[in-house]
Amino acid sequence: MSRYLDTVQQLASAQKGAARGAPAYSRFVNRRLGRLLAAWAYGRGLGPDAVTGLSALATFSGIAMLALVAPSWWAGVAVCLLLVLGYALDSADGQVARLTGRSSPAGEWLDHVVDATKVSTLPVALAVGWYRFDVVDRPMLLVPLAHAVLGAVMFFAMILTEQMRRAHGVESRAATGGRAPWLRSLIALPTDYGLLCLSFVLLGWTPAFVLVYCLIVAATFVYLLLALVKWRREIAGFAA
After folding, report:
1. Which of 50, 90, 102, 166 is deepest in the core (most CB within 10 A)?
2. 87, 59 contact by CB (below 8 A)
């Protein structure tokens, strides 16, 4: 236990600064859960790729349940726990990489591929489950399908914007090395993947879940529109 606590402390002191505007759950909850899991993985000799694999296993198990298991209170709890665990492990793999000095482009690539896959497959699996078990009216199936498109566009735009900043020698605006303002983190909360994970605890209570999910998708749409305008203006300035 003493060794585990020492590792947690070491990770806390070596952790990268929070991303500017990182949503509240991701910054204040998920990073800490990831730290605890990273210390556990390190104590068992697991490398960053192995932790990424565990993250994928937990995440895609939860996603599979959405498509294969009829919505109920216990299924909602199980999906929520699996997605929360997968997200925390997604934070842990990078911490393990830094702790062990095993960071690599291949590891970063694998992490992004898993992230890109879950962003699109999660809402699609939800739509499949809703359709198979006749949970909602047919027009409502368009909401998770739209969410899949929004997620793919946002993920690609974020990655591409960051790559173009590097290509033009512009300092990254993603990491600040300091504390993200509370207000910015709270404003971004509706778009937080962690909040989406938690929302599935309501899966068995269809009216409440549909309401919360629709609000999350609407907030994501608004956030993406504003972000795309901002990023487009920023990219346009590179040619000046």
Report:
1. 90
2. yes
Structure pTM?
0.89
Domains of the chain in sequence order: 18-239 (1.20.120.1760)
The per-residue pLDDT for 104 is 86
| pLDDT computed for residue 141 by the predictor | 97
pLDDT of residue 177: 47
Q: What DSSP string runs through the chain?
A: -HHHHHHHHHHHHHPPPPBTT--HIIIIIIHHHHHHHHHHHHHTT--HHHHHHHHHHHHHHHHHHHHHS---HHHHHHHHHHHHHHHHHHHHHHHHHHHHT---HHHHHHHHHHHHHHHHHHHHHHHHHHHHTT-S-GGGGHHHHHHHHHHHHHHHHHHHHHHHHHHTTPPPSSB-SSPPPHHHHHHTGGG-HHHHHHHGGGTTSHHHHHHHHHHHHHHHHHHHHHHHHHHHHHHHGGG-
Q: Which residues of the chain have pLDDT under 70?
A: 1-2, 5-8, 10-21, 172-189, 240
User: 42 - beta bridge partners?
Assistant: none
Distance CA(132)–CA(83), nearest Å, equals: 21
Q: Are 115 and 55 in contact (CB under 8 A)?
A: no
Per the structure block, which two tokens stand in for 191? 């778009």
Find, among 186, 164, 187, the residue nearest to 238 by Cα: 164
CA distance 154 to 148: 10
Residue among 149, 130, 132 nearest 140 (CA):
130
Tokens of 47: 């490398």
